[in-house]
TrEMBL record:
Name of this protein: Vesicle transport through interaction with t-SNAREs homolog 1A
Location of the T-SNARE coiled-coil homology domain: 117-184
Entry similarity comment: Belongs to the VTI1 family.
Organism listed in the record: Ptilorrhoa leucosticta
Alphabetical UniProt keywords: Coiled coil, Golgi apparatus, Membrane, Protein transport, Transmembrane, Transmembrane helix, Transport
InterPro entries: SNARE, T_SNARE_dom, v-SNARE_N_sf, Vesicle_trsprt_v-SNARE_N
Record's subunit section: Interacts with distinct SNARE complexes that contain either STX5 or STX6. Interacts with NAPA and, to a lesser extent, with NAPG. Identified in a complex containing STX6, STX12, VAMP4 and VTI1A.
């Protein structure tokens, strides 16, 4: 099961990288090229959504003890998908603003520079947020693994204590039987 999930994960990573690259190109293109790129990105976003659905189905098939780690990964992928869709929406807005400026003959270089600067800052913030979220996910997964290990150690300790108690009882019984046998031999 997890190998299918990991295969979907790899496909999702490749697809999101392609989408990110294409989203960055949308504002720089013109005319039919831009329309074609927008259509391609929309198709790829749909493919990415379908991959997420497949990954969710795979997570449901994974045993409960392993499911937590995969579920947290899924949350991370869904957040990444939401950010891609927001980025695409922003690039389309930039695209429609450019068309409006072309139609109205508005130069807007200073506003475009400001917009580019704001987009760069937004992108940096989003990258930082993604890094923080990835770090948080790793911390959550580590905590879950640690909790599972502590539970396993607790169970093992109980087993060892029960075995030690049985050993003491057996030792006491052996001592009694030894004394009885010694007494029988004397008689």
């Amino acid at each position: 099961m997890s190998s299918d999930f990991e295969s979907y994960e790899q496909d999702f990573a490749v697809l999101t990288a392609e989408i990110t690259g294409r989203i960055g190109k949308v504002p720089k293109l013109v005319g039919d090229e831009k329309k074609q790129m927008v259509a391609n990105v929309e198709k790829q976003l749909e493919e990415a959504r379908e991959l997420l659905e497949q990954m969710e189905l795979e997570v449901r098939e994974i045993p409960l003890q392993s499911r937590g780690m995969y579920s947290s990964r899924m949350r991370s992928y869904k957040q990444e998908m939401g950010k891609l869709e927001a980025d695409f929406k922003r690039s389309r807005i930039a695209y429609s603003d450019e068309v409006r400026n072309e139609l109205l003959g508005d130069d807007g270089n200073s506003s475009e520079n400001q917009r580019a600067h704001l987009l760069d800052n937004t992108e940096r913030l989003e990258r930082s947020s993604r890094r923080l979220e990835a770090g948080y996910q790793i911390a959550v997964e580590t905590e879950q693994i640690g909790q599972e290990m502590l539970e396993n150690l607790s169970h093992d300790r109980e087993k060892i204590q029960r075995a030690r108690e049985r050993l003491r009882e057996t030792d006491a019984n052996l001592g009694k039987s030894s004394r009885i046998l010694t007494g029988m031999l004397r008689r």
